[in-house]
Task: inverse folding
């Protein structure tokens, strides 16, 4: 079972470049999330989606954009990369309702130089 | 507002010693709480959830609504327990709120 798959695993960007972090899940989960993980800061929610066509901002959305055209895919777009966006990015998905946890991808380690 | 607090960023214990990772939460409704574990450079994976009241890899956690706590405990730490541990709360909007994490090191 694939679960949540993220690509790429690693990326180095130059300041001002743009890129898209890909995330796909095969569990038919309606909820999907993007988090960034910084040392000592835990996981901060960037954006989330409750279903295809619906997205909303999390705690730290500035500098990012998302789209959700299908249930499976939830790409994260960085338009103008900045050093402050150097982080590890995790995509996650979950079902709505009780007794359900979030399932995570393996992460994307992004460095902006 | 929802909030999860893990007061210890780093915790070191000797192998065979008991370990307790603290987690406190702030939530106005009935919380759903989880512990996630992240081994070195791997994805986060669910360790346990309070609803299940289960023991996974020897770890247990009890929800104490009076103290708004969900501490993770293990009576005898093992070297393979060394990892980052995150306490998480699922809020009413199905968002997951994470604490800042505790890095546990088990010393041989």
Result:
């Amino acid at each position: 079972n694939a679960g949540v798959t993220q690509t790429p695993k690693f990326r180095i960007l130059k300041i001002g470049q743009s890129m898209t972090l890909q995330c796909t899940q095969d569990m038919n989960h309606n909820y999907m999330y993007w988090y960034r993980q910084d040392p000592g800061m835990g996981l901060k929610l960037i954006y989330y989606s409750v279903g295809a066509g619906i997205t909303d901002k999390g705690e730290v959305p500035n500098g990012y954009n998302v789209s959700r055209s299908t249930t499976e895919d939830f790409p994260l777009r960085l338009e103008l990369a900045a050093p402050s966006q150097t982080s590890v990015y995790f995509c996650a998905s979950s079902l709505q309702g009780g007794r359900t946890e979030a399932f995570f991808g393996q992460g994307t380690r992004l460095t902006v130089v | 507002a929802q909030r999860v607090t893990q007061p210890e960023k780093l915790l070191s214990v000797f192998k065979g010693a008991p370990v307790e990772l603290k987690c406190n939460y702030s939530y106005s409704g009935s919380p759903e709480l989880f512990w996630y574990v992240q081994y070195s450079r791997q994805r986060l994976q669910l360790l346990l959830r309070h609803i299940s009241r289960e023991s996974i890899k020897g770890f247990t956690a009890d929800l104490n609504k009076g103290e708004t706590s969900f501490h993770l405990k293990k009576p005898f730490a093992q070297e393979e327990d060394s990892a980052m541990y995150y306490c998480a709360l699922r809020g009413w909007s199905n968002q997951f709120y994470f604490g800042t994490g505790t890095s546990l090191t088990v010393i041989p």
